Input
Amino acid sequence: YDIAFGDLDTILVDLGVESGANATIYHRVIASDGSDESSSDTRSATLERGTLTSNENGGLDSPTRFSLDQNYPNPFNPSTKISFSLEKAAPTQLVVYNMLGQKVATLVNERLNAGEHTFNFKADNLSSGIYIYRLQSASQSITKRMTLIK
Output
């Protein structure tokens, strides 16, 4: 089971962990083929609400850079996924423009936690063509192109 980095904050809130407080989580992997079962050793990670501060190897699992991935699939019809990484929590905008520079969709306009994020862009009401999507967070910005084919 995979838990997205941003989902950890939600889990900690649901468990009543106060903002800025630490919590230690324990996990292990159990694999089964239906007749035999195998499990890994139990591992731990110390979390500060909103940020992974360390794991048992002393490493960090949070993104180390601000990045915007190419949408997938590309070309697309009628929807595509846009993924990006934030190195720190910040007000974030993900906006789609047509080639005339007109805004056609706002996918994100809120404060997001550090980590990996993926949003689905549905272009049912748009015509075929090239579109620009722009990620802005804090003082950083990245722009990429995508192609809608109907």
Observations:
- The chain has two domains: 5-55, 67-148.
- Helices lie at 5-14.
- The longest helix spans residues 5-14.
